[in-house]
Amino acid sequence: MRTREVIPFVIYLSKRLGALAVMYFVTITIMFLLPRFIPANPVALYIQNLAQEMGYFSNPEAVPELYKVLFEEFGLGKPIWKQYIDFIANAFRGDLGISIWLNDKVIDIVMRALPWTLFLFVPSTIVGWTIGNYWGAITGYKRGTTFEKTSVLISSIVAQIPGYWFGMLLIFAFAINLRVLPPNRAYDPLIMPSWRMEFLLSVVKHYVLPFITLTIPYLCGQVISMRNLMIYELKSDYTVFADYIGMPDKVIRRYAFRNAMMPQVVNLSIRLGRAVAGTALIENIFAYPGMGWYLAQAVTNNDYMLLQGLFIILVATVYLALFLSDLVHLVVDPRVRLGYAKS
Amino acid sequence: MSKILDIQDLVSYYVQVIEGRKTYVKAVDGVSIEVKQGEVLGIIGESGCGKSTLARAILADFSPPFQYIRGSIKYNTKDGKTLELHKLSRDMLKKYVWGVEISLVPQFAMNALMPTLKVRKLVMDIMRAHFKEVNEYEVIENVNKVFQSIGLPPDVIDRYPFELSGGMRQRVVLGIVATLRPRIMIADEPTSALDVTTQKMVLKTMLDLKKREYVDSIIFITHEIGAARQIATRFAVMYAGKIVEESPTEEFIEKPYHPYSSLLLRAIPDVAQIMIQEKIVKVRDVLYIGGAPPSLINPPLGCRFHPRCPYAMDICRREEPPMTQIEKNRFAACWLYAKK
Amino acid sequence: MAKVNKETILSLIKQIRTSESLRMLLRNTRFIVGISILLGLVLFSYLGPLFYPRDPLSVRNPSLLPPSPEYPLGTDMAGRDVLAALMYGTRTSLYVGFLSAGIATILGVIAAALSVAFSGIVDNVVTAIISFLLSVPSMLLALVVAFYLPVRSYEAIALILGITMWAGFARALRARLLSLREEDFINMSKVAGYSTLRIIFEDMMPSVGAYVIIFFATHIDNGMVGEATLSLLGLQPSGGYSLGLMFSQANSQGGVLRGAWWWFGPPGIIIMLVVISMLLVSTAVDEIFNPRLRRE
């Protein structure tokens, strides 16, 4: 990168980082405020139940007292802004509270779940994106052929299959009927987690179906979008000119592909926003112990602490990934880079 | 002056399948034209008369739906060989003809540069497409010389197209074309949609390139006669897929022979004037081009211009007039001049 | 404030009636097929019970029976007749889908119109809200809001889903309206003294009408899937029955593991049918109203 490009580059990135940080805080704040402004919120209910339970075992008369004590302990007695500060301060220190359901530190639970989710999500996105884009580019180039028409037809339909349903069907086909792959969990519960072959094999076996469920619809979506982008590129004025000035077809194809890829890089960030829900659902179908599964469990068990913690970490992950994709886009597209060099 | 390009009776249509039936758009319907070394040929006509298609046909870019029907395109290369362009495959054309022998400056020249490539890289790629041994340093020096001669600053080569103004981009395209030293440069509507100053700049650049012998001849395709006239040495008027008049520039402007040309120039041909005075011909509409451009799918029978011609006679409705020589170097296809 | 009076509405109707594009649309195969599928589903869910009058919620039947002449789609774990449940569920899901897509469309149109009509601060605020909504993972937001909601009716769910869906649409619509604003015929209306709102509704809306319709159509299934997502994550609406509920019960009650394909298969097929039908409709509308895409 030339010197004239570096400084605006840094400025733009910092601005972007700042904007994302602000949005993150707004999101967290909204999440913080929600339960405190809705009547009959689960927090108070939970405390009530807890108090009653404890009171049941010791002294029923002491329930209102217990309630007050717990109320104070959960910090609900302090003014809102103070609660907010405590909340933010704790979050920064890594203290996200105690999960009601599992009686474990929320941060620990979340950190246990996150790797599983990433393990499922990241390879799926990479594979889906690369293969989908290549297939899509070839399809776009071969416009008008039977290959193209069939590819488009199949891909448009498969791309729209709801992930969870697809998962159910795959479980039914391969786990129940054919019995070749396990229907749920990340690994055989009878094997102790370790680096031994036995465990690793088990993980792989349990990985296949969720991976396919997550990847295939996404891949097909990429095929469609890349095909459209490729067709647009091949029709462009500069493609026609390059053609007429004698540039060989292969070189032109290469450049068209590169140009069409740029929007696809941007699309990666959009994928993240949408994929959270999809991945969560698939984790639930397969009882895969990632963030999504814990999310549903938190909901079912009314564990608002865990829910809150998961939310905070998930949103942070998404924003981080957004920032990274912005960075990549900046590096790859000279137009964006130099757009900030012009003053 | 030797002949560079010799097109004889070229016929090529667009084939479309509309509602199950094959329809032919007769964009180039029997065109015969020559291009000599060192001349600037202006091909003029209305939009939709087939002139842009003619550019494509000269390059022999017969890819569907554009189909070659018959005729010949003979071209003499820089090293003396004669090629029959209509017989060459697309790959051969790309490697040996397009760009290096005959080059097209497209209508949308401002958008013709790939937006994500620096000019330098684009030039190198184009060079590598045509020549085996490419020395980057030499190439860049060469290109810079060309660029400078048409008034571009030397750092243009390291810029991205979006960093340059429209006029500069236009000149870069012309410069790139010139670097390949084609014998013929075809310019398709280079001045339309440009303001007058930029027009003048483009025309001057093209002439400069010719003067410095970067190109031998220029084919200038346009509907703006005023612009073409500034650099053309010869005019060919195109109507409904056919050439209807050929003539050196100044004589053409002063006194056009074909009624269509006269309507384009808003002047009455001498012969027609005499024939009107002697009441041989009745004038229908005086001096305005009524009617719409003819359909290229179903062109009118006989002379294609007869529905809009003020001097149409009976024979015009029945038979197509042949290209007749009226004076030395002046031809027209019109029954006013042809002997019958 | 403009009076969106009888005249403007009548002229809009007249425009629709005399529109040639509309006539072409009605003759387009894809459109017809798509609409028919959707109508078929609606009929299935609303009129079906007339022909098959089993109580969808009754749990008195034996559980997990595969399809048979008596129970055409078998029964689920709790003993409900799957076919009856399917009809009832489709009804609710379609309702949620339409409602949420409608809310999203209305919100989007209002936001875009406000943004374009009163540029400046209003525009900045709206754009900021849109950017924010677009960066947050919508499902997470919907999840959290639904979690804390005291009453989880289907309408509330539809509202939440609608709120998560309108942002992208509003942004694209705003972009189109902005480019329209530069057009000459808008300037003429301005010169003629039309109020801003009147310009928006009379001049701009017809041009973007197709886009709005496409958005609405393609997001009906979004709403249905959204409802299913929330149900699967544990946030079933209270009371009533929907396709999402069928999925979630099949999952949580082990229907999948026991291979009860008659239970979780059909709801998925219904959703796919909605998706495909809306895809067909939207490509047809796009083809007709966007001449650049018409087949050469």
TrEMBL record, chain A:
Key words, A-Z: Membrane, Transmembrane, Transmembrane helix, Transport
Keyword Transmembrane helix attributed: yes
Residue ranges annotated for the ABC transmembrane type-1 domain, each copy included: 114-323
InterPro entries: MetI-like, MetI-like_sf
Keyword Transport belongs to the record: yes
Gene Ontology cellular component list: plasma membrane
Transmembrane segments: 21-38, 113-131, 152-179, 199-220, 272-295, 307-332
Membrane topology category: Multi-pass membrane protein
Main location: membrane
Family: Belongs to the binding-protein-dependent transport system permease family.
Protein name: ABC transporter permease
Organism: Ignisphaera aggregans
Automatic annotation (TrEMBL), chain B:
Any one GO MF annotation of this record: ATP hydrolysis activity
Database matches in Pfam families: ABC_tran, oligo_HPY
UniProt keyword list: ATP-binding, Nucleotide-binding, Transport
BP terms from Gene Ontology: peptide transport
CDD domains listed in its UniProt record: ABC_NikE_OppD_transporters (cd03257)
Domain ABC transporter: 5-265
Gene3D superfamilies per record: P-loop containing nucleotide triphosphate hydrolases
InterPro entries xrefs: AAA+_ATPase (IPR003593), ABC_transporter-like_ATP-bd (IPR003439), ABC_transporter-like_CS (IPR017871), Oligopep_ABC_C (IPR013563), P-loop_NTPase (IPR027417)
Record-given protein name: ABC transporter ATP-binding protein
Organism: Ignisphaera aggregans
From TrEMBL, chain C:
GO cellular component: plasma membrane
InterPro entries named in the record: BP-dependent_transpt_permease, MetI-like, MetI-like_sf, OppC_N
Start and end residues of each ABC transmembrane type-1 domain: 90-282
Primary localization class, coarse: membrane
Transmembrane segments: 31-52, 94-118, 125-150, 156-174, 195-217, 261-285
Domain of life: Archaea
Topological category with respect to the lipid bilayer: Multi-pass membrane protein
Keywords recorded for this protein, A-Z: Cell membrane, Membrane, Transmembrane, Transmembrane helix, Transport
Subcellular location: Cell membrane
GO BP term, pick one: transmembrane transport
Family statement: Belongs to the binding-protein-dependent transport system permease family.
Matching PANTHER family: D,D-DIPEPTIDE TRANSPORT SYSTEM PERMEASE PROTEIN DDPC-RELATED (PTHR43386:SF1), OLIGOPEPTIDE TRANSPORT SYSTEM PERMEASE PROTEIN APPC (PTHR43386)
Name of the protein this chain belongs to: ABC transporter permease
Lineage: Archaea, Thermoproteota, Thermoprotei, Desulfurococcales, Desulfurococcaceae
